[in-house]
Design a protein that fits this description.
The structure holds two protein chains of two kinds. By secondary structure, chain A is α+β, with helices and mostly antiparallel strands. Helix content of chain A is about 50%, strand content about 10%. The chains are: A alpha+beta, B alpha/beta. Chains A and B meet through helix 2, helix 4 and helix 5 of A and strand 5 and helix 11 of B.
Chain lengths: ~160, ~400
């Protein structure tokens, strides 16, 4: 990591601690913000957050590793989550998944070479009545066909 | 009945309501009167466990502390459940008014909505809604002129963990820890968020309360059955014409619901999501209710063409992934059940081993630390019981021998 990047990350964390607080219950909201902006929480960020909250860095890591939406490794710029729950599966999730895998040339759980997409499963997006569903970042899309899903991916920058 | 807000109808939750109505009524009453009214309504928690809401509130109200919390559990993660999404998106006035009434009754100054990460798109609209409530003095200081009644609501975003729907895991998560369930006792009503008395209620439970305040417990008791009063929101998905959220009085049978949603050639109905029970055709006359087919509201419909073993595999994969891993029965048990399903799939199972797995399932039900592991074997046990011939002959050409 470049020194400049480090400094800006440290400033960001300073700002978040100032805004949200430095007690333990501020941990997840801070991690959320960092995850959102940088798409992962680096070792350095973990150490900085731990220092501010006066806990061990491993505590921060243990929290990150628990939650599906927080990562300690870099991911793609856009996170695609395909709902894998039974209601979506009955409405054609497999065709959706295969079409996406072919189109961006990765398997579920992987990141494309150009770092544009990470494709993952989601455990029930709560859109069973309008299945099959997937999310791209924090937006959700419903009643998808494989064609429509691929088209949505192509529209993403 | 098309499934949009305009055309949704129901006897309780989807009946007419104007923002603030329940709060106006509540602040004109004494706290004891509210608790008495709730007790009389026999309202039970709508998340699935069915704990009497009045008892939870009474215990929290009776705990002596400067700070108390009311938490709205919007970590709706059960496969096939989406009623909370509909309530928060289309009826936020009911949920938030319910929280304000709860705050008034138990003496809490802070309400927290634990919103699951998957519903992040609801965050901004809900925040805007809270801001509008502040402007109308439905939140903030001396609410509606009631001196000393200060209450505000904040929203906390979850990060994609099913187990955080369990109330003590939810509190752990709010405090910035891994979402691992706590030992109980002590219960959250005494020692909850930050060690303070806390009442954790489901979104739907809270949304019911303003109606009870306005129209009274006798009116509420007139809907539903003797033991299960009121109505229930059902999230219906799967093989039917009109999936969506339906409000039904408790006591409605599975058959009646199937008819309502236009389901044909139904082979099985999974009631209560992945952690619920799977009912075959012969049991479609069972009634929804705490005394019979209990549910948090998830109904997944399977027609004659569905393979129940594949359904079961999908459920068990879910639990293997979502088990938090702190207690052995759940961590290892779910993995073993999934392995068993894969053996059946390949035709490598023996009856002796399947019987052992059933025993394991029963052991998990009694020995797991929290509701996840206690309920995850339900689908395994009920599908193996009710669809034995189909499932165990999966690799022999199905229950008709492949001919």
């Amino acid at each position: 990591m470049l020194v400049e990047e480090k400094t800006s990350l440290a400033e960001e964390i300073d700002f978040l601690v100032e805004k949200i607080g430095n007690d333990r219950s501020a941990l997840l909201p801070i991690l959320h913000e960092i995850q959102k902006k940088y798409r992962y929480i680096s070792d350095y960020a973990q150490q900085e957050i731990a220092r501010h909250l006066r806990v061990q860095p491993v505590e921060v890591y243990s929290v990150i590793s628990f939650y599906a939406f927080l990562n300690s490794e870099p991911k793609g710029r856009n996170i695609v989550r395909i709902c894998r729950t039974v209601s979506c599966e009955m409405k054609g999730k497999l065709a959706l998944e295969k079409a996406i895998e072919r189109e961006v040339n990765v398997k579920i759980g992987e990141t494309t070479k150009d770092k544009k997409f990470t494709v993952e499963y989601a455990n029930c997006l709560g859109l069973c009545d309008v299945a099959p569903a997937m999310s791209i970042n924090d937006r959700v899309y419903t009643r998808l066909t494989p064609e429509k899903a691929v088209q949505l991916l192509n529209e993403v920058k | 009945m098309e499934n949009t807000k305009k055309e949704r109808t129901g006897k309780v939750i989807f009946s007419e309501y104007k923002r603030g109505g329940g709060i106006i009524k509540a602040v004109s009453m004494k706290r004891d009167e509210i608790l008495f009214e709730l007790k009389n309504s026999k309202l039970k928690g709508r998340g699935g466990a069915g704990f009497p809401t009045s008892t939870k509130w009474m215990l929290t109200a009776a705990s002596i502390s400067e700070e108390k919390y009311i938490i709205c559990n919007a970590d709706e993660g059960e496969p096939g459940t989406f009623k909370d999404r509909v309530l928060l998106a289309e009826y936020p006035e009911l949920v938030f008014d319910g929280m304000v009434i709860a705050g008034y009754t138990i003496g809490a100054k802070t309400g927290i909505v634990y919103l699951r990460g998957e519903y992040e798109y609801l965050l901004q609209p809900l925040k805007d809604y809270l801001e509008a409530m502040r402007k109308d003095n439905l939140l903030g200081k001396d609410i509606l002129g009631k001196e000393g009644f200060d209450f505000d609501i904040e929203i906390f975003l979850g990060s994609g963990a099913y187990v955080c729907g369990e109330e003590t895991a939810l509190i752990e998560s709010l405090e910035g820890h891994r979402g691992e369930a706590r030992n109980r006792p002590p219960y959250p009503v005494n020692t909850g968020y930050n060690g303070k008395p806390t009442s954790v209620n489901n979104v739907e439970t809270l949304a019911t309360i303003p109606h009870i305040m306005l129209k009274g417990s006798d009116w509420f008791n007139s809907v539903g059955t003797d033991k299960s009063t009121g109505s229930k929101l059902m999230s219906v998905s799967g093989d039917c014409e009109k999936p969506g959220v339906y409000e039904i009085p408790w006591g409605t049978t599975i058959n009646e619901l199937l008819e309502m949603v236009g389901a044909e050639n139904t082979k099985a109905v999974q009631v209560g999501g992945a952690s619920g029970f799977c009912y075959p055709k012969s049991q479609f006359d069972r009634k929804f209710g705490y005394e019979d087919a209990a549910t948090g509201g998830s109904v997944i419909i399977f027609n004659e063409n569905r393979k129940m073993l594949s359904v079961l595999k999908n459920f068990m994969e879910f639990f293997v992934e979502e088990s938090c891993g702190q207690c052995t029965p759940c961590r290892i048990g779910n993995t073993k059940l999934l392995e068993g399903i894969e053996m059946i799939e390949k035709g490598e199972h023996t009856f002796t081993y399947i019987n052992k797995l059933k025993d394991l399932g029963s052991t998990m039900q009694v020995s797991s630390k929290c509701g996840l592991g206690q309920s995850s074997p339900n689908s395994f046990l009920s599908i193996l019981e009710n669809f034995k011939d189909e499932v165990l002959n999966y690799n022999n050409g199905g229950d008709n021998g492949g001919i």
